[in-house]
Amino acid sequence: MAPNISTRQLQAFLALHECRHFTRAAERCHLSQSAFSAVIQKLEAAVGAKLVARDTRNVGLTAEGLMFVDVARTLLSDLDAAFTDMGDFMARRKGRVALAALPSLAANGLPAVIAEYKRAYPGIAVQLFDALSDQCLHLLRQGKVDLALTAPGASLAEFATRTLCSDPFYLVCRRDHPLAQKRKIALPDLAGHELIHLAPSTSVRQHVDQLTRGVNVRHSGLEVEHLATLAGLIGHGLGISLVPELTLFQFRSMDLVAIPLDSDAVVRPILVVQQKDRALSHAAQGMLELIERRLRSSGKTRRVIPGQ
Do 288 and 99 meet the contact criterion of CB atoms below 8 Å apart? Predict the structure, then answer.
């Protein structure tokens, strides 16, 4: 069992070593001589060895006391370094914060937030994992990330969640498509048109399946995982697609247009997710505050419609 030694005892012992005089050492430590002697005696009892050799004229250290000088200096130095580090963490001069985010958010919106955070706290390392919803939650569950920015799903009950913003859906089609001239799209307008889908594992696909339930859309037979592939297929006239606003930067083509769906209720919520039983570090808390301040704007993402 480690001895119960205080910094006050260590400082008093080193003062005695340097002054070689009880009265002067006591004055340096702002203690009476009797109180100072009691501190040294408690240190010797805790160490289990006589550290100070006393006689009527001189104060010296025993062999064990001389050995303990380096121990005392190391302990105080380590403690000072630990508190300095702690101060750096609390002042956000050093640390680490890790995020998992949907690829659409990781590419559009979050980079500006991370850049602002790095300017404010250059000593903090930031990690970003761009992943689909299930993988974001897996990383959070493993403790590899502090926060996940993702869409609603079936595996959220174990986490603390709150809505960051809403991501409205758009129809993306070629400029020469029959629907391209509409200013807004009602869901029944999709009837009879061929839809290109994202993979069933994506949160986008899960929302689109809900939106088009009961609408007589035609399945093009094409299901892809990457938005760039989706844009290429639409650009070659192989169908249309419904995508959330955060993904529209992938469809910036002169041949494509994006038209909002005619309902504010047709949105994909974007959630901030964290562990219920794990407090955020000071660095992660600062990142969360910045994300909420910069990405939450009246509950909706910024409207940008390429091609119009």
Answer: no
